[in-house]
Amino acid sequence: MGGTVKLAVIPGDGIGPEVVGEALKVLGAVTAGGDTVFEQTPFSLGAARYLETGDVLTDGDLDAIKEHDAILLGAVGGVPGDPRLAGANIERGLLLKLRFELDHYVNLRPSVLHPGVVSPLANPGEVDFIVVREGTEGPYVGNGGAIRVGTPAEVANEVSVNTAYGVERVVRYAFAAANARPRKKLTLVHKTNVLVFAGSLWKRTVDAVASEYSDVTVDYLHVDAATIFLVTDPARFDVIVTDNLFGDILTDLAGAISGGIGLAASGNINPDGRFPSMFEPVHGSAPDIAGKGIADPTAAILSVALLLDHLGLAEASAKVSRAVAADIAERGGATRTTSEVGDAIAARIGA
Amino acid sequence: MGGTVKLAVIPGDGIGPEVVGEALKVLGAVTAGGDTVFEQTPFSLGAARYLETGDVLTDGDLDAIKEHDAILLGAVGGVPGDPRLAGANIERGLLLKLRFELDHYVNLRPSVLHPGVVSPLANPGEVDFIVVREGTEGPYVGNGGAIRVGTPAEVANEVSVNTAYGVERVVRYAFAAANARPRKKLTLVHKTNVLVFAGSLWKRTVDAVASEYSDVTVDYLHVDAATIFLVTDPARFDVIVTDNLFGDILTDLAGAISGGIGLAASGNINPDGRFPSMFEPVHGSAPDIAGKGIADPTAAILSVALLLDHLGLAEASAKVSRAVAADIAERGGATRTTSEVGDAIAARIGA
Ligand SMILES: CC(C)[C@H](C(=O)O)[C@@H](O)C(=O)O
Ligand SMILES: CC(C)[C@H](C(=O)O)[C@@H](O)C(=O)O
Question: Ligand nearest B98 Cα, by number?
Answer without folding.
Answer: 2
